[in-house]
Amino acid sequence: MSDLILHHYALSPFSEKVRALLGYCNLPWHSAITREMPPRPVLQALAGGYRKIPVAQAGADIFCDTATIATEIAVRAGKPELAPQNCSDEVKQFIAAVEMDVFFACVFASASWSLHKKVLKTLSLLELVSFFADRIKMGRTAAVRIVKPGQAPTILRQHLQDMETRLQQDFLFGAEPNIADFAAYHSLWMVRDAGEKNTVDPYPRVMAWMDRIQGFGHGQPTAINPQQALTIARDHEPRPLAEEEQQDDLLGREVTISPADYARDATRGRLVGSSVSRWVIARETTELGTVHVHFPKPGYSLKPV
After folding, report:
1. Nearest to 31, CA basis, from 221, 158, 174, 219
2. Most buried among 23, 49, 127, 287, by the most CB within 10 A?
3. Domain at 4-80+220-304: CATH architecture
4. With contact defined as beta carbons under 8 Å apart, do 224 and 5 qualify?
5. Is the pLDDT of residue 127 over 90?
């Protein structure tokens, strides 16, 4: 099984979620740095219209959304508790809350001069303006209600109070972490570590929990040029699909798949796999041949062309 390639950038909170998962599992992986906003020609070639970050890759298989990436990590590490579909309804509901309202509240709450200085190390001032314009447009075209900046302090305070109460053990749902810990961690990382805000300081259990997750590190990354990822995809065939991934009336049909919440750009291809938790579409390109792009079913919309 080849090492995962992670297409990410340093200040991407959802990328930090995956990096922390890789650290907890102590897995080797390849780091391919991408831009903070489109155009991203390498990812366009691999994943079509999909624009969220991070994206993971194993050969000619492309994994979109942290739900499918976490599942891939769970299989490789032998830790099924890291796959969202294996969790209880309580855990799933918690994740849904922290990755929508709480996430956006943390993004707004993380704004600081320290964060802007970090961003300006990779973006010019003009690119920074374009970045914010891109994110504003993303929010305006979202199909779900996005938290307003004025609501952020209250939502974040309530979330931190809830977390402080929950953390009676080392992790949110027990003595060992599951996917909920990583889903909650990356938003608060944006506030405490990226934004260098002291908002989390009055909550000692939350601070200690964050330190425990941060202590896992990021695994065993090796930097690669993103162009190498295209060569790797071109030189591999997609892995065989399991029998349980091939049950759907639309199999063989041309379809589009897109996020149902925000950044709803669609990826088009032929549906070749459908299981309880994911869809897989085949994309045929002159440059790469056939790649399989994997999407989770929760939070995504499939339409026949």
Report:
1. 221
2. 23
3. 3-Layer(aba) Sandwich (3.40)
4. yes
5. no
CB 77 within 8 A of CB 23: no
Q: Assess whether the region 4-80+220-304 and the region 89-214 belong to the same CATH fold.
A: no
Task: Please check whether residue 56 is in contact with residue 46, taking contact to mean a CB–CB distance below 8 angstroms.
Answer: no
Strand pairing of 267-274 and 278-285?
antiparallel
- The pLDDT, as a whole number, for residue 136 is 64
| CA dist list (Å): 200 to 49, 58, 191, 292 | 36, 36, 8, 41
Residue for token pair 């390498």:
42
The architecture of the domain spanning 89-214 is Up-down Bundle (1.20)
Domain range annotation of the chain: 4-80+220-304, 89-214
Question: 257 and 281 in contact (C-beta within 8 Å)?
Answer: yes
Q: How far apart are CA 214 and CA 282, in angstroms?
A: 36
Cα–Cα distance for residue pair 178/182, rounded to 1 Å: 7
Task: Return the C-alpha torsion angle 303, 268, 275, 233, nearest 10.
Answer: 180
Cβ(71)–Cβ(83) below 8 Å: yes
Tell me: pLDDT of 139 over 70: no
pTM, full prediction: 0.95
Can you name the residues that pair with 279 across neighbouring β-strands?
Answer: 274, 295
Q: Which residue has the tokens 């099984």?
A: 1
Residue range 79-102, pLDDT digits in tens: 999 999 999 999 999 999 999 999
First-to-last C-alpha distance (Å) of the chain: 34
pLDDT in tens, 201-238: 999 999 999 999 999 999 999 999 999 999 999 999 99
